[in-house]
Amino acid sequence: MRQASTDRRPKTAVAARNRPPVPPAWMRWLPLLYLVALLLIEPVTPTRWPVSFALIAVPLLAAFAHGPSVVAGATVFAVLFEGVLAGTPCCAGRSVGYLWDRHYVASYICTALVGALGTILAAHRIRRERTLADVRFVADIAQRVLLRPVPHRIGRLRLATLYLSAAAEARVGGDLYEAVPTPYGVRLLIGDVRGKGLLAVETAAALLGAFREAAYDESDLPALADRVETSMSRRARLLEGPDPGERFVTAVFAEVPADDDVVRVVNCGHPPPLLIGPGEVRELDRGRSAPPLNLGVLVGDPYHVEVYAFRPGDQLLLYTDGVTETRDPGGVFYPLQQRLRSWGALPPDELLRRLHTDLLAHSHDRLQDDIAALTACRLADEGCAPQGGAAHDD
Predict the structure, then answer these.
(1) What are phi and psi of 269, to 5 degrees?
(2) Where are the alpha helices (DSSP H) in 239-371?
(3) Concatenated DSSP letters of 180-240
(4) pLDDT per residue as tens digits for the range 353-379
């Protein structure tokens, strides 16, 4: 699912999101197609073996895509049409006496029973779909609170974000990102909570809350990481679940000052960011990564700041390991750096759109893990033209 950067949709559009999904067209038309197929087969079948008995399936087919009233109507139609095919000389070529033959009467009764069951099943399906739509709607709101939209532009940075859930019905997971303007520059965060489910969401919420508060107060990245570490350790002891020491988060903190063409990075056990510059894609990693958050107290190593040149037109890509650990059906991991080099210069929005499409294609629409990514393009004073590309304003 693509995480939008702004939300200006009308209330009616938001409200429509909790409506049950509309079944595909082929499923809605399936009962009629089935009936047409029977009518084509009927003329070539022996008189003593009429296909009207197959009409018993019509109410069941209608129950897959329609509501109980449509299923009930389809049941009445199927019973009447069985009678037409059973004993009308003009339409079926059989005498009227066949109409009340015990075999046909049994067919009427069975069709009516199947139709009654189909009506009940259709009503139950509608209730389940509405419940699922309500749950998804609430999850969408929760995600917008947890992963609030990142502005398209902050100062001299142009930003874009991507979030994909491995579960088709999931909306919120343990992957997270954030971008905060502060007096010390724009501070970026990407993180991945160990584990899944509600505990991962709670941990992600705690981490984001601590980062959003501390980013404004702490003057340097090691102090920021240390404060988030302290907050995470305290919060982990309060959350229910397994051993708090096992609830850790890999993360990257990055800082882009407004008055200097550099980026400062503190890595806490997370995949290193990628710097996309003119003709190059390279990892920002000097082998001095700190332990994941909530494990630093066990090791005691200080946080190291790495400083890299970050010039106008360069892009910084922060991502979770769900990107590089995406596999194709043969088990081959997604070659992120190779793909980025082959795409050349792309604006942030287009870069993540291409990444989104390529990840789904590589995995054949079967993601194994949640995916989050945040890209930041360093703007020149006249606008964003990453690696010589044209500016794309929204």
Answers:
(1) 70, 20
(2) 296-299, 321-324, 336-343, 348-363
(3) EEETTEEEEEEEEESS-HHHHHHHHHHHHHHHHHHTTT-SSHHHHHHHHHHHHHHHHHHS-
(4) 999 999 999 998 888 888 899 999 998
Instruction: State the pLDDT at residue 24.
Output: 85
Report DSSP letters for 49-110, one per residue: S-GGGGGGGHHHHHHTTS-HHHHHHHHHHHHHHHHHHHH-HHHHSS-GGGGG-HHHHHHHHH
Structure tokens at 385: 């033209």
What does residue 377 show for φ and ψ, rounded to 5 degrees?
-105, 130
Question: Which of 284, 256, 274 lies closest to 343 in space, CA to CA?
Answer: 274
Mean pLDDT within 99-122: 86
- Closest-CA residue to 83 (of 114, 63, 118, 55): 55
If phi > 0 it is left, if psi is from -120 to 50 it is alpha, else beta; for residue 185 that is left
For residue 104, with 0-12 CB atoms within 10 Å meaning exposed, 13-18 middle and 19 or more buried, which class applies?
Answer: buried
Strands, sheet with 274-277, edge to edge from the N-terminal-most edge strand: 153-154, 157-164, 371-378, 315-319, 274-277, 280-283
Q: Which amino acid is at 304?
A: H
Three-class DSSP category at 33? helix
Stated pTM of the model: 0.68
What are the tens digits of pLDDT across the range 176-219?
899 999 999 999 999 998 876 677 777 888 888 899 999 999 98
Mean pLDDT for all residues in the chain? 81
Write the DSSP string, 286-302. Answer: -S-PBPPBTTHHHH-PP
Q: How far apart are CA 280 and CA 276, in angstroms?
A: 6
